[in-house]
Amino acid sequence: MKQRYYALLLAVAVAVSGCAVSEPEPEDISPEQIPVPAPVTSQPEQVQPVSELRLAYSASDSLNPYKMKTELNRQLIPLLYDSLTRVDPSYRPENRLAESVTYNGNICTVKLRRNILFSDGSLLQGADVVYSFRTAVASGQSIAMRLQNVERCEVDQEGNVIFTLSQPDADFAALLSFPIIKEGHADADFPTGISRYYVSGTWGNTGVMLSANPLYYGEKGSIETIRLVSSTDPSALAFSLKSGEIDLHYSDLSGSETNNLSTSGRVVSQNRMVFLGINGRQQGVLAEPAFRRALDLALNRDELVSTAYMSCAEVSRYPFHPSFYRLGTLNRSAPRQLTQADALLDRLGLTQTDEYGYRLGILGEPIRLRLLTNSENAARTAAATLIVEQLSQIGIRVEVVSQSFSQYEESLARGGYDLYLGEVRLFENMDISPLMSGGALAYSVGYSEQLETLYAAYKGTGEGLEAFCEAFEAECLFLPLLYRQGQISFNREFQAEMIATEQDLFYNIVEW
To answer: Which phi and psi angles does 417 have, rounded to 5°?
Structure first.
């Protein structure tokens, strides 16, 4: 079941028109045309705080966080339900309902904030957290997969919540983002929660009204009311945004509906890595780490970002998001290095070429690599074409095998590929074990005992990431290419200075 779940995450979307927000070019003015400015007497116009917000939601879907089916409604969860933690833009865990999160081996202890009230005035207890955890695990939603490392959740005598993990995880706190609801409310239409807003009523025929929670423990902003506007399809969202019926809309840029969205917006980092998978279990050149490293050095990731992904992505050198706080001072740039790539191939003895300049094996046999890609994904199809051209510049012949998603999955499962283009959405703890040998997305990836040992040590302690990254580049079991981005689009009347994360689009709503 887990393998099927992760495989579905590999499905991604068609190419998009672009997410960068461009500014108008200034007109050319000669020096003699520039007027002498008069003394400034008026103050610059200030952005007025937002007092009401209008957001789209699906009236046919639930607002119960554990029953939601649509991404549109899931985006609203941070407004209605706080969690123990959330991650900041660098994926560092921040305490919310948790006062502290500590570790002792595979035991994670969460101390709750004191005197925290649900929106109905009742006091938050450890039992509510345990109930919410069990509801999350039983929900069958993606949050359940985030918590699969938890063996047991219980409350100790001091009222702390104890999570017993199967394996130590120094970034487990980043996964404590499941919504906290009041015990016994799992089946309610609007479960009682703790957050800045609560469902206070309805408006019109299908609208829902959210009001500021006067009992909220945290900082309060200027927005007192949020009107949820019923929307049924992407085309209606585009019209609602342009007409001013809603103030903003988020897209992960996995579909063509973004072509119709406003050009006013903010880029949002996503934890969705596009990578080049390698069949390291077969005999031949791909079994050689130096050959895999040569491919890595020959890739032009900047071109993949700008051309195949229309600049809606970030280059990635390592298998972790470029913004990940634990990368620290590591050099995250990934420049193309053709000279070094050629030198590695020469040292492997691959110096003979055919009449077209493609390298031959040691015995003079042609080297042909099959690059598997999903024909239903335009962005990856474009990336595959670029990779063929890029690797040809070091004399490596690559042939694209484009298949429907079902055929693509089947080929991956049986190892019917040399290379493949894939995408995976990592969880907030930046766990790449699904892509390592034995993982649910490993397929025919090679095995490195050194890498496995280094990764286990890093994962358990949070230390040693630099050593792991150095060893990872030497082995190149798979090749990270980029992390995709999303975009929040808003109508031109909306002037708030937004900071958004994929997990919480309303990350700094108190500052709007």
So the answer is: -165, 160
8 A C-beta contact, residue 257 and residue 477: no
- Map tokens 């495989």 to a residue: 7
Do residues 83 and 176 touch, judged by C-beta distance below 8 A?
Answer: yes
CA distances (Å), 192 to each of 110, 122, 202, in order?
A: 21, 10, 17
Contact predicate 419/371, CB 8 Å: yes
Apex 39 CA angle, 34 and 44, nearest 5: 95
Q: Are 447 and 157 in contact (CB under 8 A)?
A: no
**Residue whose token pair is 């649910």:** 440
CA-to-CA dists, residue 99 to 11, 156, 194, angstroms: 38, 16, 15
CA distance 475 to 451: 8
Which among 405, 409, 350 is positioned nearest to 376, based on CA atoms? 405
CA-CA distances (angstroms) from residue 309 to 12, 146, 254, 506?
Answer: 12, 28, 10, 26
Helix (H) / strand (E) element for 2: namely: helix 2-8
User: What single letter denotes the amino acid at residue 16?
Assistant: V
What's the rounded Cα separation, in Å, for the pair 483 and 171? 20
Specify the DSSP element, H or E, that contains 74.
helix 71-74
Sign of CA dihedral 382, 386, 388, 391: negative
Q: What are the residues whose beta carbons fall under 8 Å from the beta carbon of 237, sequence distance 6 or more? A: 56, 231, 246, 249, 257
> Are 258 and 18 in contact, with CB atoms under 8 Å apart?
no
Q: What is the full per-residue pLDDT of the chain (512 aa) written as tens digits?
A: 444 444 444 443 334 344 544 333 333 333 333 343 444 444 545 667 788 999 999 999 999 999 999 999 999 999 999 999 999 999 999 999 999 999 999 999 999 999 999 999 999 999 999 999 999 999 988 899 999 999 999 999 999 999 999 999 999 999 999 999 999 999 999 999 999 999 999 888 889 999 999 999 999 899 999 999 998 776 778 888 888 899 999 999 986 544 444 557 889 999 999 999 999 888 899 999 999 999 999 999 999 999 999 999 999 999 999 999 999 999 999 999 999 999 999 999 999 999 999 999 999 999 999 999 999 999 999 999 999 999 999 999 999 999 999 999 999 999 999 999 999 999 999 999 999 988 889 898 999 999 999 999 999 999 999 999 999 999 999 999 999 999 999 887 787 889 999 999 999 999 99
* CA separation for the pair 67, 135 (Å, rounded): 10
Q: Assess contact for 108 and 150: CB atoms under 8 A.
A: no
Instruction: Please report which residue ranges of 333-461 form alpha helices under DSSP H.
Output: 338-347, 378-392, 405-414, 449-461
Full 3-state SS string of 316-346 = CCCCCCCCCHHHCCCCCCCCCCHHHHHHHHH
**Residues 455, 468: contact at Cβ < 8 Å?**
yes
Residue 190 has a CB neighbour count (10 Å cut-off) of 16
Beta bridge partners of 403: 374
> What is the SS3 assignment for 456?
helix
